[in-house]
Amino acid sequence: MAQVAIDANGVESAKKNRIQVSNTKKPLFFYVNLAKRFMQQYNEVELSALGMAIATVVTVVEILKNNGLAVEKRISTSTIDIGDETRGRSVQKAKMEIVLTKSAQFDEIMAAAAADENGGAPEHMEGE
């Protein structure tokens, strides 16, 4: 069975490595940790946000970059029309997409973090 990405609204995303960031659905570090997992699986991750959530996606990206885990591959901005049923017309929303790739140190940093979580012991001990 194929794996699919689930956005913060619980909706399947067309791209396996895309995270649609919301500033109300999940805490900030949910997205940071999810992006780390996606980079482990796919070597890159696409973070996407609309409107007010753009500040959240920028913060997630900066945390990953400042911790030496990610490098920006592509940043794109656009404006999209979204139907507003309450007003009976469409409204324009800003959209930002940022594609990150694993940094050269990604695997080393993640291995060190895993060792710290295990009390400094290797992840898999012989005889287990």
UniProtKB/TrEMBL annotation:
Domain of life assignment: Eukaryota
InterPro entries on file: Alba-like_dom_sf, DNA/RNA-bd_Alba-like, UCP030333_Alba
Pfam families attached to this UniProt entry: Alba
Domain DNA/RNA-binding protein Alba-like: 17-80
Organism in which the protein naturally occurs: Selaginella moellendorffii
Record's GO cellular component terms: nucleus
Protein name: DNA/RNA-binding protein Alba-like domain-containing protein
Entries under SUPFAM superfamilies matching the protein: AlbA-like
Record PANTHER family: DNA/RNA-BINDING PROTEIN ALBA 3, DNA_RNA-BINDING PROTEIN ALBA-LIKE DOMAIN-CONTAINING PROTEIN
An example Gene Ontology molecular-function term: RNA binding
